[in-house]
Amino acid sequence: MRGPIFRLFAALAAIFVFCSLAVASGEPQILPLSQIQPGMKGVGYTIFSGNNVQPFDVEVIGVLPNLIGPKQDVVLVRLSSPEIAKSGVVDGMSGSPVYINGKLAGAIAYKFGSFTSEALAGMTPIEEELAVSDLAKPGASRKTRVANAAAEGSHYEMPDSLTREVGLGRGVFLEPIAAPLAFSGFLPSVIGRYSGELEKYGMMATEGGSVPASPSDANLQPGEMAAIVLVSGDSSVTAGCTVTARIGDQVYLCGHSLFGFGKVNLAMARAHVVATLPSAMNSTKIMNAGGLIGSIGEDLLTGVMGSIGPAAAMIPVELAVETPDMTKRFHFEVAENSKLTPLLVSMVTLNGVQGNLAYNDTNTFQLDGSIDIAGHSPVHLENMFAPNDQQISGAAPIAAQVQATFGEIFHNPFEQPHITAIRLAVHSVPNARWAAIDSAWSDRKEAHPGETIAIKVALRPYRGAPILREVPLVIPSQTEPGTLHILVSDAATLDRVEQYFPLGPSTRVTGLQQLIDLLNQERQNDRLYVTLLQPAPTLLVEDKRLPDVPLSEINVLSQRNPGRTTVLWQSELAEQSVPLHEVITGHEYLTITVK
What we know:
By secondary structure, this protein is α+β, with helices and mostly antiparallel strands. Helix 8 packs antiparallel against helix 9. The radius of gyration is 30 Å and the shape is elongated.
């Protein structure tokens, strides 16, 4: 009986030590890397189910100097416990604190990217994880931040001498332990479409949910889990890590970077582990997110740092999905981040549209919406999308346009935008509504400046009788005599015509408001465009269009506005469009002689 009794007392002693360290108000005693030696034994803490922090045994195998980068060492350790024997190193375990001789030595952060016969892991030395707070101080080098945040999705090869010692083959590597990425209220097809984008940051998509907030949520302690909130509301997406240490209101998590973004402002919530799902390939924790308890401010190579207190602000998203039979309204909040927000808004939009009971993949969709930006006019989103023969969701183009527009806003080189609200409405119209331009002609071959000509367009709709539309086009009074082209087209063709110049349109934009103005001028898929073109250069200066400019003036204006001018080698003299409530495709070129 001596063996079981001894192990019982040892476990109770370890729990006592852990509890005394967890409630300590000051900085924990640490065991520096210089004192860690092979053969040392310690105890780590994590949650396998419920809210019960459980110990596991840790044995130091050796130190891997400079494995992650210059002066970025990793301690190779062996883990053991009844739970570890079932699941091995578990996704969501990153950040689990390890104590040796009663002192905090580091955080479990890395696992092997190949099958192993025992639970081997990489431990981030605690002084390197706590150094995250030094980089968060005012005056810390921005270059240091970037250098410490550049290791997303990295694999770190092990030296052959050490792999032979622990019985592993050649070519094995350590990689960051993935963070469980819990989706709640999302369709499997949407998770499958977007999870890869988030998994490239070292996350593993799982099912999850949310539970009501509790007054004890903010009492977060080492070994427990915290959730980084990406989406909340009618659907949610959260990423989970284990807490390594809490010093006052500062919380240290993960033991490695989560996204590798450096300075961030993301909401933090309490995470509750439902269960650990064991797998021979990849065990993971299933978790629910609790109440908001603070913010994540730093996401660097050796760890993530947050603070207990007010939660980071998120962007409210209102989405209405309307069909002839019903209207469903959704409310979400998404994290405000230049890389994440475009993806997250696209994701909740597609999920909301496809999640409607009346959703039909063969319907046509009309998108209307606005993006409110502090200090600027709103961005308008208006377009129509018809189904096609490609094996993609009929709503996918809506999500793609939303993502592209947000990308333009967040990736602008002028200022950091602050988005205050997003309002989206998607109207579902039965059947495919598109029409192809079959032919076009003018009511005359010659005209004088100031006269109006009639352009007649024959349209071939999907499963319907041909349509004839007449579009009046005025020949500008200043038009020079000669032969001109008339382009009858959809929006995409006209946009391509305007791209035949040396530099992209973004080069002539000098501020966020000008970018917004250009985004609001984008043409729509459900309009028929008739454009009068002259073979003479047009100069684009910032957001202004100067047609038929002499070459001498182009040279002068280009020198006065370097990098902000663009030349189109034909001039758009007039443009007319008519709404057709059908997605228009195709184009025709006509000619007319101006007398």
